[in-house]
From TrEMBL:
Belongs to the LipB family. The keyword Cytoplasm applies. GO terms for molecular function: lipoyl(octanoyl) transferase activity. GO terms for biological process: protein lipoylation. Catalyzes the transfer of endogenously produced octanoic acid from octanoyl-acyl-carrier-protein onto the lipoyl domains of lipoate-dependent enzymes. Lipoyl-ACP can also act as a substrate although octanoyl-ACP is likely to be the physiological substrate. The active site is at 168 (acyl-thioester intermediate). Signal peptide: none annotated. This is Octanoyltransferase. Substrate binds at residues 69-76, 136-138, 149-151. It comes from Enteractinococcus helveticum. One of its GO terms (cellular component) is cytoplasm.
Amino acid sequence: MHVIDLLDTGLKTYTAMDEMQRDLHAKIARGEHPNSFLLFETESSYTAGRHTRSDDIIDPTLPIIETDRAGSITWHGPGQLVCYPLVKLAAPVDVIKYIRAVEGAVLDTLQNSFNLDVRRIEGRAGVWIDNRKISAIGLKISQDATLHGISLNVNTDPATAFSGIVPCGITDATVTSMAEEGIDTTLGAVAAPLVAALEQRLEPLLAPTTIEGDVHVYHPAG
């Protein structure tokens, strides 16, 4: 498993990260690249998933990036950890098991490493503290390989993050962050246990591979 860690290389544009994940996905689907976790932090951006409704966009002047992941509209930006598990799943693919494994890794991380009382809510994706959403999960599977993934609010600015939209199209709940819940930490400190939890949760679901390699962190030049 490769860990491609871009957290220390500055804010990225969402489109650049989307291009990178699609390139990796194509190689992983063909068996030409090891399963990978892509970690990054973006400039402020809004992405609309396949289930976005027009009334989820409060401010029609916002620049919206259309995506092919599940879910509605959301925000990505400073203070939010984004992690894309890009892996080849064993056939026949069980989509529900994959979703639960990804959610479970976030639950494991926040419960075990940060002592937050997080949970799932029946009928709603993501990870919650009461009716406050702390992590969104938006996924896609193509050619038995995965795209998109997790956004986890670590120390986002509550005054500006998610403004102008109905986050995830949910009108009867709010969003929160680890900082708002009293946890003073960094994206890198959250990424380490998250990667470990993802590896453990996803291992039983992965297709056999002939590409070997231990988990390692890749820091690109520049």
